[in-house]
Amino acid sequence: MLEPAERYTGYTAYEYLEAGKDYKEFTYAKQVGRVPAYAGLDLSADEEARTTKLLTEETVISLHEHVQVFPEDMTQLRDHIRQGREPTAYEGLAGSGLTAVFDNGMDGTCCISSDAGWKYQDVLFDLGVRMADLAHQDFVMKAESIADINRAKETGRIAHIFALEASTMIENEVDRLDVLYGFGVRQMGIAYSEANTLGSGLKERGDGGLTYFGERAVARMNKLGIAIDISHSGDQTCLDVIEASTKPVFITHAGARGLWPTNRMKTDETIIECARRGGVIGIEAAPHTTLSPQHPRHSLESFMDHFQYCVDLVGLEHVSFGPDTLFGDHVGLHDAFSSNLSLGQAHGQVEFEKVPYVDGVENPGEAFYNIIGWLVKHNYSDDDIRAVVGGNTLRVLEEVWVS
What we know:
Elements: H1 45-57, E1 61-65, H2 77-82, H3 90-94, E2 100-103, H4 120-134, E3 140-142, H5 146-155, E4 158-164, H6 176-182, E5 185-189, H7 212-224, E6 227-229, H8 235-244, E7 250-254, H9 268-276, E8 280-283, H10 300-314, E9 319-321, H11 330-336, H12 343-347, H13 367-377, H14 382-400
Parallel strand pairs: 1-2, 2-4, 3-4, 4-5, 5-6, 7-8, 8-9
Helix pairs in contact: 1-13, 8-9
């Protein structure tokens, strides 16, 4: 993690309001230093300098994060979510080195009015409240275009791009995609593990593929300029979306099933087809996902095993990073919302060692320093590093986004 960016003034989420009067106050997890710094890279002084230079000078984009900070006491989590006021972790982001981040908000835990989540009015409320807070500070800027990403880089800010992990909330109303686009959403998943009106999620017993309504939704996303994500979709639905879309699609946060055999990982066929149509896979690091036979205890090393597997499979130009991290106890979040997040079905019968956090890729503030440090340590060139930490994503966005 770097020193805080000069542009960051110390703003904390919703400080324009009065805690305890305008909203319920919680004690939140530490954004910096919650867990020990990763000690596994063993960089030389020259390697450290090169890592810092690349992180600070290049365009670095995370394809998938949750940039909120969660309560220190995770037994308060549902009460916290009910108030619908997720706090952006400005302090933690200030040392991340990120140029741009796709923030997926409350995803499968969007339970303001319903424990089942994914309600349209809840998603709009979440987006609106988050935008109100972003508007009261000048470090993390709402971004909707490549020009915004470039402006963030030029001015020492972070481009914050709203994304959603599924389209479940549009139900059978395709015009809701236009509304979400108007709110600033620039990336959307098809299904989040559970099947919906568009297609199947990865947890289902069977996968009927993309529905006729799903085809309409994909066509509308292409016309609007919403990047499509198939990370949580079922295998057949993934292939159908890739074929139906006139634009490249993202697998924003996943790994390779050829390396770790769970439904949460993508098949070689899906990764290859995604790349063949110009798309990119972002490697993820949510706890207990991208494990590997070489590194069965989840850490930066197992995460990077999936990166190397995908590079060998489809070429470096089709691989990037979507670590899928947050500020707080991610394992505790999974424990509290295991049914909403379909973790049992996603992991299947594969056994793994449970860890308290993913060492080296624990939060958005530390992830990319360690990712770039690993790439430096493993003799990747500067050009290759530029590509995988931002360039590949920009190439797809230039084709998908309308501006």
